[in-house]
Amino acid sequence: MMRRRTTLLTGCTALALTFGATACGSSDPVSAGGGDKALGGQTVTVAGVWSGSEQKNFQKVLDAFAEKTGAKTQFVSTGDNVSTVVGSKIEGGNAPDVVMVPQVGVLQQFAENGWLKQLSGTTEKAVDTNFAPVWKTYGSVDGTLYGLYFKAAHKSTVWYSPDAFTQAGVEPPTTYDDLLKAGHTVSDSGLAAFSVAGQDGWTLTDWFENIYLSQAGPEKYDALATHELKWTDPSVVEALTTLGKLFKDKQLLAGGQNGALNTDFPGSVEKVFGPKPEAGMVYEGDFVAGVAKDQFGKSIGEDANFFPFPAVGAGEAPVVSGGDAAVVLKDGKNTKAGMALLEYLATPEAAAVWAGAGGFLSPNTKLDLASYGDDVTRATAKSLIDAGDSVRFDMSDQAPAAFGGTKGAGEWKLLQDFLRDPSDPKATAAALEAAAAKAYKG
Length: 442
Description:
By secondary structure, this protein is α/β, with parallel strands linked by helices. The protein has helices spanning 11-19, 29-33, 52-69, 82-91, 104-112, 121-130, 133-138, 162-168, 176-188, 201-216, 218-225, 234-247, 256-261, 265-273, 288-296, 335-345, 348-357, 375-387, 395-398, 401-404, 410-420, 425-441; strands spanning 43-48, 72-77, 98-101, 140-141, 144-145, 148-154, 157-160, 192-194, 279-283, 305-308, 320-328, 392-393.
């Protein structure tokens, strides 16, 4: 497919529009510019999926940008279906200037539709300097940078109750086999090992991806993510077999398979950290900490802690990530100010604002870890940064939404079916390949 290109707004030109010509020679242009209010009277509209505390904390970042530049900001929450909402706004002549895109596949779709402006030279330089190269890769389409990853998720963290581990006499495991052994020991002490959020199919894709990345390795992971490798490949069957050992073990799952299928993500956290614990561990991303803290009053590091998702077999411990990329729409009413916002978001200064508020990880390597509010978040952030280019983006987020991101369809549904009956990994792999082939062809 022919993909449209846009003219590059040079770093100095974009910077001058935003912070004044004197900033053009600065090595840290956004920080150097503060206080001249060059965008006074202009409004930047930003659309994204965030609501609640995430929207509130991102607003603090926007407020810091406004204080620095004089611009006004307006945030519009899109709900989960970013593509549909943004498309309708473009058609209606009411496009936002900036969109926070939560999936690589959606960013690619926006670029292919010709909706996006190439990011400025200033932003690209900041990405080259401040981020591991993998983040530039995920923000680019055909070698052109369209997306800046501002917020990241670390999806290779297993959260546990220290009290449950103490009672069972177990330590955080470092291999997958030891993880299952520790789970049985926890179960013998009176709690189920794992609370699994099978009602939300996306959590099951994350289970699979961590196992697959560790067991099959990054090259096959990348090939499967782009459907260059078929889901019927033996490596997929092997990973499903490994996952199936957990799913079919009623001693390990809180409520068994039916209980897992009737548990959503917040419920899975509640079963470990709520007032009536049913399990000792819950696997999901760093955002588990926010739920444990905000909804159940847990002290992170004392009442709730994590260990890295352990290595499977002879593989390396996986680091799977997700994230939200800022993009600038061509049809926005104030794209120059939108581009200036991205130049600000590329700085450690902007990341520090949300880091201090909590519920946030940044892939910006120049962000001082002291900016985070607690030791556990610092450890999670350090793990993500230290992984460098070995980080792999959530595979389902790279796929067409029909396969990797639709409730009751594609990968979500088929892995729920596998949780219900994990007896035939080959049949599940075949069903996944049929769904993937249809979605990628479409």
